[in-house]
Amino acid sequence: MNSWSKSVAAIGGALGLLVSGVALADDAPAKEPGVWQKHQYSFAFLGFTSTYSCDGLADKLKVLLLAAGARPDAKARAGACASGFGRPDKFARADLTFYTLAPNTTDTNAAADKPVVGTWRTVTLSDHQPRELGIGDCELTEQFRNNVLPMFTTRNVDNHITCIPHQESGSVIDLRFDTFAAVPGAAPSTAKAGPS
What we know:
Layout: H1 3-27, E1 31-44, H2 54-67, E2 75-78, E3 93-103, E4 116-126, H3 138-147, E5 154-159, E6 174-182
Antiparallel strand pairs: 1-3, 1-4, 2-3, 4-6, 5-6
């Protein structure tokens, strides 16, 4: 190898390190301040394929809330149902109380608010992701996407959910999005978050 080839190889190697260093810096999720926003919602499930008990519906909704980036103290309680505990109900309901993180667009927080560090993270909802989610939950996931997900700060929503009424065969749960969520350990789950 002549000196010209060695120089070109050295420059190429240095550029490669520089480019890989930039790529590594870009891969690190950006952190920015956020504020908690409180939400309360009465979820009424209307589906053709699966039937839930009210407590079973509440359990599934809590899984979806946490997967989408809600604060860990999210609550999903069985709503007013005609059937008893653990019994399927055609008109299952659940009452949700949860906090989502939004980027802080102001310079100051209310005195009661504690600063929270947030970042964008990618969420995928599919069959067994999270593990408690199955194809039978297709219509529930679809209704969660339509009615609850808009309360989260999201971007790059890529929706390929296909639910076929009265059968699981052919149904597909495939929903991906970026959600603005607290950095793990950044704030205690009991932090105050504005007026109730």
